Amino acid sequence: MHGFGDILQRLHLYPYVQWGRRILFWWRMDETAPQHSRAERIRMALESLGATFIKFGQVMSTRPDLLPPDVITELCKLQETVPEFPSEVALQVLKDEFGVPADQLFAEFDPEPIAAGSLAQVHQAVHHDGTKVAVKIRRPNIIRDVEADLALMEDLAQLIERHIPEAQTFDPVGLVNQFSRTIHREMNFVRECRTIKDFARMFRNDATLVVPQVYEELTSEAVLTMTFVNGCRTDDKLGLMALGLATRPLAANGARIFMKQAFELGVFHGDPHPGNIRILSDGTICLLDYGMVGSLDEDTRETLVDLILAIHRRNVNLACDLMLVLGEAWRPVDITVLRADLRDFIENYYGVPLERVKVGRMLSDFITMVAHHGIRFPCDLMLLIRAIVTLEGVGRELDPEFNLAEHLAPFIEQVVRERYNPKRIAEQIYVEAKTFLRILHDTPLQIARTIEKISEDEFKIQFEHRGIDKLITELDRSGNRLVIGLVLASLIVASALVIAGGASLALWFSIPVFTVSSLLGVWLIYGIFRSGRL
User: Fold this and answer.
1) Which end of the chain, C or N, has fewer beta carbons within 10 A?
2) Helix %, strand %, coil % for the chain, to 5?
3) Residue 355 lies in a domain
4) Average pLDDT over residues 313-321
5) What are the two backbone dihedrals, phi and then psi, of residue 301, each rounded to the nearest 5 degrees?
6) What is the rounded distance in angstroms from the CA atom of residue 377 to the CA atom of residue 380?
7) What stretch of H or E contains 429?
8) Which domain holds residue 52?
9) Helix and strand numbers, DSSP H then E, in the chain
10) Residues 84-141: pLDDT tens digits?
11) Do 101 and 147 fall into the same domain?
12) What separation, in Å, do the N-terminal and C-terminal C-alpha atoms of the chain show?
């Protein structure tokens, strides 16, 4: 149980686990004290639960606003160690998806996979036009397995919220729902195909980034076919040296590409680690694996830029207001304390030379402060922050003097300039005026409907009492115990009276009833004492 027996106890699951272990694993029932930290045990527990839970941990590693830094560090170490599925199965998936065997779909198809993950594995093939392609094939029955794991996760999340009030800080049910959306997106290869095409369209005039070409006729929900990219990873220093490429321009170009995605286009690659980046022989960059992609609408991008500028200008009041616009407070926020903490945060970094600013560390400190005050940022914004932290690490691998802030500044200036573009201002005025006219047009009708409902006694007010579910559960539990107690008391008294009467037939029936009722009564009293709610 990786030392989490106390949590199972609070979830009222420990007795069931203990009975199961006694029956199935009676030869190794000894409980040893945990030899690892809490964060390490969380990682080990997820690894032992299988691929879906490992993927859950990887997704949760992008939420430093919800989880402590030590847990985030351990979750980043999670690796998908899953076996390859047989080539016969891969060939059958291709036939099921397209109705013809692989030798008709491709000129050549290598049955041995070149990479395998928890959701899919990749095979190399040759298209009929002679192009080398990579064929990503989803694992058979993976949807069924994931749905079963998600159902278990949802049940556990509800138990945690019900029995561990302090865990509501992390919003367990919300985390599971977020993960469910993420993994369903990753399992739909048609969606990933559209994303790749969108990136290709957005960067069609940028010669420094190569986006793989997808073959839609050879793509389905379970199969994705794209051009095979043969290049060096960013952490392959020997390979980059063999190509004769200078690493400093590569780091700068990678940062520029990512900032263009996030702040100019509003769609960005959410997992830019070395395994998803290839450097081609001419120095161009290619991004792989578009399953995890984030997006920021124009309003969010502008608010984020305003927040960065407010912090840079040491405008604490404006920065606090913008933080509450960007995020959602799940509990009352003490503005005075928030301003004091934000002022301390700004003072820690104000005046530090740009070349010495570590953006990743600064963002981590900022998110820790925000989470301390009960403010949650949107998932895509947290994904952006995690991607920036990852990108800074990749950049420093290529160039020890790499500074992400230098590459961020031009795009912030561009967002500010674009805000005052006359054409954009005219478009905003048009949209706002159209919205106002629509509201003005609908107002008399809405007033008339409201008056009509009031006059016909159909006007209803919905009232929501938050937190009453726990009270109802406790009342139900108390009522059940009271009823059981009354029934047991009645059985004990009735059996005792019959026994006192001395009738032989009645004795044959009453003594077992009396014994069982007494034992159940003792069990009920023990349970009440043990719960500490006497």
Assistant:
1) C
2) 65, 10, 25
3) yes
4) 90
5) -65, -40
6) 8
7) helix 422-455
8) 36-80
9) 21, 12
10) 889 999 999 999 999 999 999 999 999 999 988 888 999 999 999 999 999 999 998 8
11) yes
12) 30
